[in-house]
Amino acid sequence: MKRRMCTLLALLLIFTSTAVYAAEDIQSRLNLPATYKQKASDPYGMELNITLPSDYQSNLKTFSLSFLVDKTIHIDKATFVGGLTDNDYRLMSTKTDSSKQEIVTLVIPDVKALASRDFTLKMSGKFKKGVKNVDQVTMSYVIATVDKQGKNHSVQKDVTSDTGKGAPVAPSGKKSTVDPIAEGANTLTGTATARAGVRVYRGKTLIGRGLADNDGRFSVVINPQPVGTALRFLFTTKAGEEEVMATVGEGAGGADAAPYTGDKKKIDDYLRVLTSVNMHGREKVDQLQVNAAVATGQFILAKEDAGMTDIANAESSLSEAMKVARPPFVTGYPNGTFKPTKAMTRAEVSSVIARIANGNKPVAGYTSFKDVDDSQWFAASVGFMEKRGFISGYQDGSFKPHQSITRAEFARILAAYAGLEPTEGNSFTDVKKNHWAKGYIGAVGQAGLMNGNGKGRFNPSAKITRQEVCAALNKALERKPDKDFLDTYGNNPFKDVNKKMWSYYDILEATGQPQ
Question: Which of 235, 259, 382 has the alpha carbon at shortest distance from 309?
Answer without folding.
Answer: 259
